[in-house]
Amino acid sequence: xxxxxxxxxxxxxxxxxxxxxxxxxxxxxxxxxxxxxxxxxxxxxxxxxxxxxxxxxxxxxxxxxxxxxxxxxxxxxxxxxxxxxxxxxxxxxxxxxxxxxxxxxxxxxxxxxxxxxxxxxxxxxxxxxxxxxxxxxxxxxxxxxxxxxxxxxxxxxxxxxxxxxxxxxxxxxxxxxxxxxxxxxxxxxxxxxxxxxxxxxxxxxxxxxxxxxxxxxxxxxxxxxxxxxxxxxxxxxxxxxxxxxxxxxxxxxxxxxxxxxxxxxxxxxxxxxxxxxxxxxxxxxxxxxxxxxxxxxxxxxxxxxxxxxxxxxxxxxxxxxxxxxxxxxxxxxxxxxxxxxxxxxxxxxxxxxxxxxxxxxxxxxxxxxxxxxxxxxxxxxxxxxxxxxxxxxxxxxxxxxxxxxxxxxxxxxxxxxxxxxxxxxxxxxxxxxxxxxxxxxxxxxxxxxxxxxxxxxxxxxxxxxxxxxxxxxxxxxxxxxxxxxxxxxxxxxxxxxxxxxxxxxxxxxxxxxxxxxxxxxxxxxxxxxxxxxxxxxxxxxxxxxxxx
Length: 548
Description:
Layout: H1 3-33, H2 38-48, H3 60-72, H4 76-98, H5 103-111, H6 114-118, H7 126-145, H8 149-163, H9 168-179, H10 187-209, H11 213-221, H12 229-242, H13 247-257, H14 263-282, H15 297-310, H16 312-337, H17 344-352, H18 356-366, E1 371-374, H19 378-387, E2 391-394, H20 409-412, E3 418-421, E4 441-443, E5 452-456, E6 463-465, E7 469-478, E8 499-506, E9 509-519, E10 528-534, E11 543-545
Helix pairs in contact: 1-4, 1-5, 2-3, 2-19, 3-4, 4-7, 5-15, 7-8, 8-10, 9-14, 12-13, 12-14, 13-15, 14-15, 15-16, 18-19
């Protein structure tokens, strides 16, 4: 090997060491000094109860957090340790896939994407998704270039790990298959698929045993809001900047201009454009979170590197965009670490990312009492993490189901003393130090019955007039006997009796309620109960349309 080539390789290695040292150091620093966001605390709660599945997601993020917490305990860095390692490995694997001659250009592209700075340390399911989707691409290229049983084994396992990270992995796998339908005739591909199926079968079995809560939520329950044009416009406007603040425009243009030269590159383009198109269509169902397109990022970076390497003028413009991009990213990093008291808009946004203060205020007031938060799965998670006192979530009619509906906290704390923090106003003092957000009531002999279900036996008309009387027949289903040896007692706490409430909604907003109808008694369980509802809303047309 010539001296010039040795010198080039040494320079390349020095750049590599410098990048991963700086990048990893920044992630470690940020992870240590940035408070957990609400979803991270929720996933940390997952890790306290390891299982093959959870209401919202597959189990991989819980496993990442569990491993980090075992090493470092209940601190932010422990929650995020394996997420950071996953981010570093993901970037390195794409370096191996792209094989950049201009390694500095590849690092500049990666480091100019703001979302990688934050999802590089924030503990969400996106981190394992990025890692194992990258691993799947890595073995997929090897598989189609040199098919053998060993490659099929690695491809099957990596795909399974991707599916166990986030359900978006199904979309990625589908796009890859559509890009290369010849795989359906390949015996080794079916072997890989069989390996994947075996690996994810425990999660599928968990879904069966819990009546498919993830499928019900993501396909039918996630968005109850009617379609609004801003959903689509917001998505179209934001996507070029999701991978920015400026690089997203280069990624979009490069993937438009560059053409796939082989089956592997074709799969990358199918994932990039297919992912963007899929989530565009999803805006007609409800609001799409901007970061859901993260699975498109590195396939997009693949062609962005190739385009910028070939076009000097575009590369110069890209380099000019780096200083302002890095300044914006640096300011955002600082923002997440420190709290800001003014101006008002900045303070409100800052309070959203800084929760330790209100947790400490509630803990000072309530001591070691377990706390139930109404209609929030994030707040009990944050409270448990920062106080060390177990908290849980309760839902009323305005809340959505979550993992706490699967966990059995109501039975654990039944008959004990619990502090309840509702999501509605109650006539007690506000807890000092929480900006007026929290009031509470302490309940002795705590009783709650979320597993009682109401089945509608009556048929409804589509239209009723104002002031009509609506009579419904409901069946009160007792689902506790199938779970516990002893029946529950609806009359156990006479200070807080059990009632059926109702309200009316219009465009996902309560327009009438909450109104009491029937007080539940033990003898009503597993029986039909008549309920009368009076429509007391006046409209200009004197009619009201609703569904129950």
